[in-house]
Write a structure and sequence with these properties.
single chain, alpha+beta, GMP Synthetase, Chain A, domain 3, 3-stranded mixed β-sheet, 4 helices, 3 strands, 35% helix, 23% strand, globular
Length: 101
């Protein structure tokens, strides 16, 4: 499963404090049981001192194969532990606006 691969790769590549990976494909106009749209909330002190662009680039490098293949969309929410302790909640994903759904 793609979701399992994402979890394994992120866990192996970052000192994870908290990780949530949600398959949101069902919210989009894709075949049943698709694994193409994901929401990732990654909390790690590996992101201390890095802006969001650098944080996201680090994740994109780890998930390059998935993004080049089965993953069409990645809602990525990254936080250092201190940032997460202030927020404690990632934004909700918006409704799908395309694909006739």
């Amino acid at each position: 499963m793609v979701e399992d691969t994402i979890v394994q790769k992120l866990t192996a590549s970052f000192d994870v404090h908290s990780l949530t990976v949600e398959n949101e494909s069902h919210m989009h106009n894709v075949p049943a049981d698709s694994e193409s749209h994901f929401k990732v909330v990654l909390v790690t002190d590996d992101f201390v001192g890095k802006n969001k662009v650098k944080q996201h680039q680090a994740v994109y490098r780890v998930l390059a194969d998935e993004l080049a293949g089965p993953v069409h969309a990645l809602a990525l929410h990254t936080y250092a532990v201190e940032q997460w302790q202030k927020t404690q909640q990632a934004p909700l994903s918006p409704d799908c606006l395309g694909g006739g759904k």
